[in-house]
Design a protein that fits this description.
mainly beta, 8 strands, 12% helix
Length: 136
């Protein structure tokens, strides 16, 4: 399993006592979405996770999720659906893609620092279509 390798929500040890996994999940879940890739025959070819950041239409995801897709559908945690209308950029070396959606989302809050080695982190996403998962 590949994870989107960018730190976004870092909680210090002193803050961690006030925020449990469920609280962090609930605070960030509106920013996380499911992406389904389709081929030119409208057949699904893959799926993965993405998240809104920066503004309410920009999405980051792994390039391997969207590469070679004829079209991309998205589903927000609220159940709202939409499409990707623009690929803003890709970074093949880092397996990243920036996309623009037709629906508005909630941008995730960017971390002010990278996590320290050994610090607990959470991965929130939709692996293999299993929506709203959390891993520590």
């Amino acid at each position: 399993m590949r994870l989107l390798a960018i730190a976004f929500f870092v909680v210090s040890v002193t803050q961690a006592a006030a925020l449990d996994v469920k609280s962090v999940f609930e605070a960030t879940r509106p920013s996380v979405l499911l992406i389904v890739a389709y081929d030119e025959n409208d057949q699904p070819t893959g799926m993965g996770s993405g998240f809104f950041f920066g503004d309410n239409k920009t999405i980051a995801t792994n390039l391997h999720v969207v590469q070679n897709a004829a079209k991309l559908a998205i589903k927000l945690s609220s159940g709202e659906t939409g499409w990707i209308d623009t690929v803003l950029g890709v970074d093949e070396q880092r397996d990243l893609a920036l996309l623009q959606s037709t629906v508005l989302g909630t941008p995730i809050k960017a971390a002010s620092r990278l996590p320290d080695i050994g610090e607990d982190i959470l991965a929130i996403g939709n692996p293999n279509g299993l929506e709203g998962t959390v891993s520590t």
